[in-house]
Amino acid sequence: MYRHLLVATDGSDLAARAVTAALTLARHLGAKVTIVTATEPWSAMTGGEGFAFDFPLEEYEKAADSQAARLLAKVSDEAKTAGVSCEGLQVRDFPAEAILATANAKGCDLIVMASHGRRGMARLLLGSQAARVVTMSSIPVLICRA
Questions:
Q1: pTM summary value
Q2: Local structure of residue 47 (DSSP, 8 states)
Q3: Which CATH architecture has domain 4-145?
């Protein structure tokens, strides 16, 4: 059925539950897993041109790389314990775009990710990467909700 799962994580507790569910599914299917975590572009963090923010790009990238490495190592250990073949990737892009591009580049046949399932004003104000992925994906998406 599914041979290669892409699992998106941001390191949150909710995303960790989706990772665990995906690894369990992969183990049962005999599928391999690609874990992706996205580092948003520096411009998204600074609010654009002319925004006074005293945090250099190099420091941002160093901190983001360190956080991503810790997260991917943790997930890799969990995959190893579950007996699942796993590759971890950090992608520098907005989350939905990173997830979709990685799934396509790696030939994944299922995307697994978490969603808070917000509705109404909360969804409008906070946005939903999961909704963007579901809307734009050409492959099936499994959403794990809180």
A1: 0.85
A2: T
A3: 3-Layer(aba) Sandwich (3.40)
